[in-house]
Model the fold of this input.
Amino acid sequence: MPADLPKSRAPSIRDVARLAGVSHQTVSRVLNNHPSIRDSTKARVQQVMDDLQYRPNRAARALSRGTSRTIGVLSASSSQYGPASSIAAIQDAAREAGYYVNTANLTSVDPETIEAALDHLMLQSVEGIVVIAPQMRVFDVLEQLSIAVPYVTLQSTGSLNEHGLSFDQISGARAATRHLIDLGHRNIYHLAGPQDWIEAEARMRGFLDEMGAMDVPTTAPILGDWTADFGYHAGRELLRVRDFTAIFSSNDQMALGLMHAIRDAGLSIPGDVSVVGFDDIPEAAHFWPPLTTVRQDFPELGRRCMALLLDDISPGPGEHREAIIPELVVRASTGPPAF
Amino acid sequence: MPADLPKSRAPSIRDVARLAGVSHQTVSRVLNNHPSIRDSTKARVQQVMDDLQYRPNRAARALSRGTSRTIGVLSASSSQYGPASSIAAIQDAAREAGYYVNTANLTSVDPETIEAALDHLMLQSVEGIVVIAPQMRVFDVLEQLSIAVPYVTLQSTGSLNEHGLSFDQISGARAATRHLIDLGHRNIYHLAGPQDWIEAEARMRGFLDEMGAMDVPTTAPILGDWTADFGYHAGRELLRVRDFTAIFSSNDQMALGLMHAIRDAGLSIPGDVSVVGFDDIPEAAHFWPPLTTVRQDFPELGRRCMALLLDDISPGPGEHREAIIPELVVRASTGPPAF
DNA sequence: CGTTCGAATGTGCACGGTCACAATTGTGGA
DNA sequence: TCCACAATTGTGACCGTGCACATTCGAACG
Done:
């Protein structure tokens, strides 16, 4: 038995080749499932690879192929339930497709930060980008930098450009609004997401559209920041006037804060005020009272998004781009208004 | 002006070198801030790089240097608030240090899945791994595979091995338990996390330790799965007997479900039952009633974890490994027992 | 003015794969 | 038996960057 030289370097295909008595190219063929390899040869090579615990070097492969098999994710508020579950789904889908995922977080939304994050991604020669913080501004920067790779976004309205995955937020918001109107509410407030966020915009539009269609007078939506804290403070402010019987919040966290403020004021839900949220986070069913909300299937969204992007990178069978229709989940936080 | 040949390939250092009238090595030196470069030369090269929109090729660099500057994150339940915020912090810290992060999700905990996820990470030649799903089993697999790179874990007790970052979960849990005992409770249940999770184990230990130290008789903890749904169902079961006045839940989500069940049974919180959670997720302050809980600084945890790992990869000034002490946040969900 | 030495720059190759092409082997039909 | 042709395997170059070493430059010094 020849001495097993204790080389410090990890084994390469040439090491495998030498021990298997073949050329390095043959080893490469085994790695890539080339059709024309004799079974016996393949087995022998495989055996040596196992013995050596050989791992292909990704950098070398990327360099030589000129392709990184990495996609980038640009995300804001990635610790929130929605984005986080989408990211997880994207990662799983990517891994399944043999891709790697690299995430860059947006801590703020000024152009410099966005550009820095994009730079970080581009530096890794990503082949595509998924944008999860669909702020208008991000797209401006994307367009302006004339990004050289395909990109898609989650949670857009689908109307922005060809890159968006249509999740029909508008009809989700309309359904929620319609639910309140059907119950008999006429004085309804809308607690919207931050200005500049595409999904906040879409939900607000859905609200306004439905109110308009049903001929119910509206007040200007309040722009929030998605947090429960904001919902609480907004609620306190609103309750000083108390000229409404229902509120549609554009996410569940703000709805939670809102309900907190309403109870603090000694009012009952839904007796005095009905509340509707958006997202259906897993906790929503256990809020007090359990929250009526609009369910979004974030993981499915992530998967679809990934499929879309992969299709852009290397056109395949063509993905179904039809919109996902969100579903209204009626729980105990809504009821007819008291007069 | 020479024709600007429309090459399809991205510019390389040699392209830059040619246009700047220097050797490719000089360009490389500019890239790496080599000290011995004449300012004028440096400026000229930089100019050409800007003109060409030159981006260094990461794969080539990794191949040549033999280092990927990538760290891997192995994570379970990455869509939950705690892990998600830690991951975000890790990514930020890594980016700041010039590292890239690649995440692999664990959808289940059987050895094959863990091994596959690790494989995925190793295939990218990561230089270090952060384990966020600190299940015992994961460590077994890690040890067994004799992973060739340093790794650290969040949220361990610090006692497991030298890889753990000490977040003193035990004293956090003790503080929570002590709070209940001090209020006068003597019949206290503990709703623990899943078996095999290190942090669940640590919190349980803290609970049992404190109960023992204060000479309060204990019942066996109930093993949950971190979800609000589980908390709700566990609560319903427990209330059929109702031989307790307080419950310490090992996370906020389960505490939420628990409170839901308690209210469903027509009982009041904290009048009939006091509830304590763990984590202090942003929503906890707006639960009904606002939840007494133990605050964990997840972002700080992520940052520290990253510092530790980077220090392992290339020993530096030596990081402070002292434990983070969690803080008890008393809100309205706890009070003295009614007799 | 030649020498010396450090600063600044250039040369060639290695890294570990893949690609294009060449060479060899194997198989069936004339 | 010999040849055409496909299946299988080998050869060498190349991807873009960094390293080790060689070379040139420039200023200070004897």
